[in-house]
């Protein structure tokens, strides 16, 4: 019976000691905080990833070092399960325990207890593939991770600097290599080839789309989009902006998907590049979120967010299923979160089953798996489409009765190849949007007119302890601090079409407040008044109370 290599773990762990004053938590998207504090966490994640792999009979586990949309000084790490999905929820708690063991001896005890409780067979191989984004702190964090992998003797593969969705793709491709359900070549080239070939088939014979402006958030998406552009050739022209991956402080700064969504503005750096009517889109720092937009004929910024992407894509897929003659057998459903604009939920719910779940891709992903084809998008632009294994089988074996059915069936099959079904993927989603626009001959204007967004506002509030905020009903209501929800309800009633909710962020040390109302000024006012309530209830330094809601 093999045992943990205690001596190796002990001596290497001493080089990566936990800062005694910090507590880490595996949250919405793994561990995420100041990059300079994460050294011990990365070492321990290396050991943990290897144990997870052993627990799953040597299947390859992914580790991604990124803090996605967060500012450059932050960093983070998350684990990817063998099918390319987020780490199974029960292991999030194990990760938190391991990360918080105070000393090396405590760590050894915690690891030993994990191995015994989960009956992990240590004689099994451990295989891990890892990657990082372009953050300056990434390099040293990767070396801490490598020490963890070395300490436990894992077989490790370095996937270099790449996007989060490519790492997810690689994990699935490695674990399905040579199998009937092979996901593709287990290399970046395999990823670009798979996506670009499916895209070319889907747009064949369609009028070529105008060039697309892509804001790369000065992150890793810049190099990935440049490579993808080469594979796409003249099937789609990408004009890449915000590609300064080595300029200090540039990452996600005044650009990128999160900037666009939260400010509802065009990144200032694009002002001279986007002509009225032209399509633009923004990736986030690790290229797993996507926001589209255009300027109308008066030069007004019009945002096409995750909700609008869901509406566009779901309608197209439903149409293709119908044209293929499969409406009775393949049901399409949509998953959203509380952040979905009320108008989008209304639009979608009139046409399809719609489910609301808590924030976090893992929640959306699992809910989407319950549909034959599940379309999930968070309003922030994070999402994808899942085709169930039975649906993929049906598509592969269905005998079309007419040429029109055959064409639609082929489109659906090509969509299963174009879409990165492991996780939200800005580049894959971008190609998906472009396919639908090409098929429908839509510009941004027609797409935008599917429904009119209710004016809305998202505000962050810094509080003493965000963990004091607990929610229920898919985060739409607060159960703690006591009494706050009643005050919010009283306020919301005063606004026509008013809706507001409060939840603690899982990726930043803030509480988020969302509000919508019939008029823009009212949505703003409601958001700031609810934020004021949050601030006052959670206690804090009056001098730091954000000016806008004083
Ligand atoms: C992560 C999650 C998303 C979530 C977002 C914000 O995105 O993967 O599902 O919507 O954080 O979460 P929160 O409001 O809890 O901070 P990303 O793109 O930052 O990895």
Beta-strand fraction estimate: 15-25%
Kindly provide the name of the CATH class of the largest domain: Alpha Beta
Distance between the termini: 64 Å
* Helicity level: 40-55%
| CATH arch. level architecture of the largest domain | 3-Layer(aba) Sandwich
Domain Alpha-D-phosphohexomutase C-terminal: 480-531
Catalytic activity: N-acetyl-alpha-D-glucosamine 1-phosphate = N-acetyl-D-glucosamine 6-phosphate
Keywords: Carbohydrate metabolism, Cell wall biogenesis/degradation, Isomerase, Magnesium, Metal-binding, Phosphoprotein
Enzyme class: isomerase
What's the arrangement of secondary structure elements?
Elements: H1 6-14, E1 31-34, H2 39-55, E2 61-65, E3 74-80, H3 89-100, H4 104-117, E4 127-132, H5 138-152, E5 155-161, H6 164-175, H7 188-203, E6 212-215, H8 221-232, E7 238-241, H9 256-263, E8 280-283, E9 290-295, E10 301-304, H10 306-323, E11 332-336, H11 342-349, E12 354-356, H12 361-368, E13 373-377, E14 383-387, H13 389-397, H14 403-418, H15 426-440, H16 444-448, E15 456-461, E16 470-472, E17 477-480, H17 484-492, E18 499-504, E19 511-516, H18 520-538
Parallel strand pairs: 2-4, 4-5, 6-7, 6-8, 11-12, 11-13
Antiparallel strand pairs: 1-3, 2-3, 8-9, 9-10, 13-14, 15-19, 16-17, 18-19
The structure holds 1,6-di-O-phosphono-alpha-D-glucopyranose.
The site of 1,6-di-O-phosphono-alpha-D-glucopyranose has 18 residues, from loops.
Outline of the structure:
This protein has 550 residues and is α/β, with parallel strands linked by helices.
